[in-house]
Each structure stands twice: as C-alpha cells, then as structure tokens.
Amino acid sequence: xxxLLTSLQKNISGQPDLVETFETLRxxxxxxxxxxxxxxLREARRCHRRExxxxxxxxxxxxxxxxxxxxxxxxxxxxxxxxxRIGLLAAVHYRTGFGRGAVLMPTADGQYEVVSAIGLRRWExxxxxxxxALRGARxxxxx
Length: 143
Fold this sequence. Notes:
Elements: H1 2-12, H2 16-47, H3 52-59, H4 69-85, E1 92-97, E2 100-106, E3 112-118, E4 128-129, E5 138-139
Antiparallel strand pairs: 1-2, 1-5, 2-3, 3-4
Helix pairs in contact: 1-2, 2-3, 2-4, 3-4
C-alpha cells in the first residue's frame, strides 16, 4: 500500500485537487500502521514471559520506521526482552540504528546466524554473517 501511495504521489503532484485526498490516504495508512503495531505490542506483552518465541513472531514483522518514537522504543525493548528470555548462550545483539537490530548466535564455521531481527527486512532467521560484518555487536545480556 505504501508503494502504491508513493507512486500515486508522483502522478498527482501537479493536480491540487487530488493532493488533499492523497494526504488523507497517507494519514489513514499511518494510523493503520500504528494501530497494528499497538495491537501486536499488547499481544506480545501478554505472552513474552511464558512464550517468548510467540512474542518474537508477533514483533519481528513490524516495521518500526515512521512509528511514534515511544511506541517504537516499547516494541524494540519488548523484542529484546523476549530474545533474552529464550536463554541463548553466546548470543550477540547487533543494533544498526534506531528501531533496527538483530540477535545472532555463533555457528561452528565461525559465522553468526540470525535468531531474530526487527526493523531489518532482509535479516530473516537463519541468515549468516561473517564476524567482520557485525562490528559493534555486543553480548546479549540475560539481565
């Protein structure tokens, strides 16, 4: 939907009567994104203690970009808490920027494998990275 709106914006920029309609559509799309994120946060909060993997399944698909900062922080924090609850020994937390991060485990061949990621579209579970690509990764503290 977002790609379609961006495409439409390019086509209607010269038509003032459609600009207001486009703004309304964009505002509604943002409101739906926030609502979906809030619902996922509520559900993930319910299950993250007993079922951290279920919480991760709810949180990983959420795109944190463009969400209100406080909501994005809560989602990221709960995601990280759920990752810690899994109890992965030797896991590392790699943060690439606000609302984007991954938890990875070392593999036998010296690489790191993604266990969970949020805000990183191409970082699906099982993807592997060389340690050099993960500069700044920190041990995942269990707190």
